[in-house]
Design a protein that fits this description.
Length: 171
């Protein structure tokens, strides 16, 4: 796995990566920023360092650390059906240092509103339900999409849905 380390940089860095299909990007598994305002897209492990960083995952998964500063975490969580009619969901995204009131989370949940199965039957799907589950023992919070963990927030307790920007996107 490739590593992109700009931790000594004092200017903002933009890295767009797409390791899943290799059409563009360098397949970085780890992207590390410095003290500038960095923009990272789709690294498996992203650490913005100091600065007001933007960390984006376009299909969930990964481990994101904003570092010092007012960071934005943009996560696309997809709920789809495979060619056999089985529901698939994005992997859980882990955020290690979300600070409510300073950082921001934008969660976009895409779902198939009118699923057509392989036999041509149409199923209408209700919008997914977004809930929070707090683990009092670990001080962690899970953002749930129906029964799936979309976001795992380390060291965060007392969060409400008002602390997260949620967009339900039907297709």
């Amino acid at each position: 796995p490739a590593i992109f380390d700009a931790s000594d940089s004092e200017v903002g860095i933009t890295v767009i990566d797409n390791p899943e299909d290799g059409r563009f990007g360098y397949g970085f598994s780890t992207i590390t920023g410095g003290s500038g305002d960095d923009h990272f897209i789709n690294g498996t492990v992203m650490d913005g360092g100091a600065g007001d960083d933007l960390l984006v995952r376009t299909d969930g998964g990964g481990t994101l650390t904003g570092g010092a500063g007012a960071d934005v975490f943009e996560i696309q969580h997809n709920r789809d059906y495979d060619g056999h009619g089985y529901l698939t969901v994005s992997e859980t995204t882990r955020i290690t240092d979300f600070t409510p009131g300073e950082d921001r989370i934008s969660l976009v949940v895409s779902y198939d509103e009118h699923y057509v199965d392989p036999d041509g039957r149409v199923y209408d799907n209700d919008p997914p339900e977004i809930t929070l589950v707090e683990d009092a023992d670990t001080g962690e919070t899970h953002v749930m999409v129906n029964n799936s963990i979309a976001l795992h927030l380390e060291g965060v307790s007392g969060l409400t849905l008002a602390d997260i920007e949620v967009e339900l996107r039907a297709y």
